[in-house]
Amino acid sequence: MPSHITYAYIRQNPDIREYIRRADMALAAIGYTEHSFAHVEKAANTAAMILEMLEFPPRQIELTKIAGFLHDIGNVINRNDHAQSGAVMAFRILDRLEMPVDEICSIISAIGNHDEGTAQPVDAISAALIIADKTYVRRSRVRNTDFMTFDIHDRVNYAVEYAKLYFSEDRKSIVLDLKIDTKISSALKYFEIFMERMLLSKRAALFFDRKFKMIINGSNIL
Question: What is the pairing mode between strands 211-216 and 173-180?
Fold first, then answer.
């Protein structure tokens, strides 16, 4: 039986929005970059774009957006193992909404496999979410307003002036294109800090039989 649960409903659900808001507050308290609505909506839309470009069915694309919106709610419990706790939380939410079990499985599997410490691209939704989440960087995610006290993650994120994820013209590669202010952080330092995420994105792209490419300031890095 088709599910009545849509991305629009999940996005507007007040309980879910409170989980996301409180999860971001918890990360703010320990000095992490922004993980609020801007982040989860961008992750949802980017993951959906990947599956749209690869011509996946509309319902699978919608499930991907739901997974993207919910993927970081586990941070309300703790940053450690937040992917797994978030998957359990999402199960409870979606089960109470009477979403079909097969759809719940797809969503919680993607959420439980998005953190680079334990992530694996086990299916299309999880692979798309990995790429969307791990390639998302922008200057405005940095909360610290004192440049002199930036840690390396603040510095690297703040250095990014432009970031775009897109498919190559032949659709054989997924490309992360970045412009970095090298006065703030070198391109090498960016790759050093985010190497694990980029290699995970490469594995996720291979799930779709695609290459993952990274361009920084016009030069191919990966």
Answer: parallel
Report the C-alpha gap between 138 and 22 in whole angstroms.
21
- C-alpha gyration radius of the chain: 17
- How far is the C-alpha of 74 from the C-alpha of 41, rounded, in Å? 16
**Helix axis angle, 82-96 to 58-70, nearest 10°:** 120
Distance of CA 69 to the CA centre of its chain: 9
Structure tokens belonging to residue 177: 């294109």
From CA 168, how far away is CA 178, in angstroms rounded? 15
pLDDT digits (tens, 9 = 90+) for 117-128: 888 999 999 999
- Return the SS3 of 216: strand
What integer pLDDT is reported at residue 3 of this predicted model? 66
Higher pLDDT, 56 or 192: 56
0.85 surpassed by pTM: yes
Going by pLDDT thresholds of 50, 70 and 90, the confidence category of residue 2 is: low
Integer angstrom CA distances of residue 71 from 62, 111, 185: 14, 5, 29
Q: Over the stretch 86-104, which tens digit does the pLDDT of each residue have?
A: 999 999 999 999 999 999 9
For residue 36, give the DSSP letter. Answer: S
Give CA angle at 180 (176, 184), nearest 5°: 145
Structure tokens at 2: 């088709």
